[in-house]
Amino acid sequence: MPMFDLASYLPYLVNRVGARLAEAFSGELADLRITLPMWRVMAALCQKAGQRVGELAEVTSIEVSTLSRLLRAMERKELVRRARSLEDARTVLVELTDAGVAMTDRIVPRARLYQDLALSGFTSAESDSLKAMLVRVHGNLGALAAQRSGFERPA
Q1: Which residue in 150, 35, 52 sits closest to 103, CA to CA?
Q2: Cα separation of 100 and 44, whole Å?
């Protein structure tokens, strides 16, 4: 049986990087009484205001029921508000409040600092290439969900 090299296994490497960044950045956010998932929601809403819950779940990689609970907590903190769409009353849109925008603006420089630290020593081209490759990997894995029902697991 061929040797399995965990140290060069992509999911392991991505998880290690993500875990290290999340642990360090979560400490910064805790000082502001914000969690990492809350930050992802605020960053996503800063990028595009008035998102549907399902759309926001996709962008933030947070399961819909978990996101709904998180949004309730964020509403209590007055960081977001939910409202019915004017075009379709069945659709609920989420947007940042003024306090949410202010908090996001306060966190963005810290988030950029962590990104800069993670990418120190990379050229701008290397950094852009790494990000583009990770976006491609994510897209490749999106097809996995569609194939999953027919995916055969090794015995």
Answers
A1: 35
A2: 12
Question: Cβ contacts of residue 74 below 8 Å, gap of 6+?
Answer: 38, 41, 80, 100
Q: Which CATH number fits domain 6-118: 1.10.10.10, 3.20.20.70, 2.30.30.40, 3.90.640.10?
A: 1.10.10.10
Q: Where are the domains of the chain?
A: 6-118, 122-155
Strands (E), the chain: 51-52, 80-84, 92-96
The tens place of each residue's pLDDT in the chain, 155 residues long, gives: 678 999 999 999 999 999 999 999 999 999 999 999 999 999 999 999 899 999 999 999 999 999 999 999 999 999 999 988 788 888 889 999 999 999 999 999 999 999 999 999 999 999 999 999 999 999 998 877 767 655 555 54
- Residue 100 CA to residue 71 CA, distance in Å, equals 12
Give which of 76, 86, 89, 80 is closest to 60, Cα–Cα: 80
34 backbone dihedrals φ, ψ, rounded to 5°:
-125, 140
